[in-house]
């Protein structure tokens, strides 16, 4: 559930110089005068540099162009690939031997590795699911989280735990767990059963419209600096559209409709909880 020591060392040999470059450029921690002191700085301070870096990814291009560290081509390409990151809130749903299961608010399921530590080293599985904010990065054709986790002090009942379990199991059955950000690596798609019937024009019209709305809804992102109601509300919008797509199929799958209904019920509870916490 974490990188090998060699791969972890390689990751840090690229990330730390990049963060130090960003700190020198933006003077986020001006009291830190040298690279060795920066490496020894507490995570609570380094995370400020990390946040600035991924809010200003043009600095990655500048770092690669300057290449003051004399990094090799492979290292520079790895750093450039970090512009293809995923940031946001996730549920850590379970620990597996191969990777850790992170579920995003849009129900995308990621297989994620730790760096020098696996989340299971400091999170008891009895506390799962747990909600965190982090950044996912490509590395060695795998997905890692960048070493920083912000935890939400929220307890989840059986409803949410059951819903997340269903999301994981359905995604697993469809071979759709995202394990790499490499665009050349194709994930196998779930095969749709042929019903032997042609869709009506009405079905096609609804399908096109709902697909268009779903694509637009994917751009709705909650997270840092925004009201806490945004994230569960946007998830509710996406889940509702998914329910509509299931309901308008030529032969709706009742089991999938029920599971999506349960997911929406859970999201409604999350929205209500967020509203209460903001009052």
Stretches where pLDDT falls below 50 for ≥5 residues? 185-204
Order of helices and strands: HHHHHEEEEEEHHHH
Mean pLDDT value: 88
Count of DSSP strands: 6
What level of helicity do the residues show? 40-55%
Shape: elongated
Beta-strand portion reads: 5-15%
Overall structural class, as computed from helix and strand content, comes to: alpha+beta
Integer tally of domains: 3
* Number of distinct helices: 9
Radius of gyration (CA) equals 21 Å
Oligomeric description of these chains: single chain
Q: Which sheet architecture does the biggest sheet show?
A: 6 strands, antiparallel
N-to-C span:
39 Å
Account of the protein in words:
A hairpin with a 4-residue loop joins strand 2 (100-104) and strand 3. With 279 residues, the protein is α+β, with helices and mostly antiparallel strands. It has helices at residues 5-26, 35-39, 43-55, 58-66, 73-81, 158-173, 201-217, 230-247, 254-278; strands at residues 86-95, 100-104, 109-112, 130-139, 142-145, 150-151. It contains nine helices and six strands; from the N terminus they run H-H-H-H-H-E-E-E-E-E-E-H-H-H-H. The chain has three domains: 5-81, no CATH class; 86-160, Nucleic acid-binding proteins (OB fold (Dihydrolipoamide Acetyltransferase, E2P), Beta Barrel); 202-279, no CATH class. Helix 6 (158-173) packs across helix 9, helix 7 (201-217) packs antiparallel against helix 8 (230-247) and helix 8 (230-247) packs antiparallel against helix 9 (254-278).
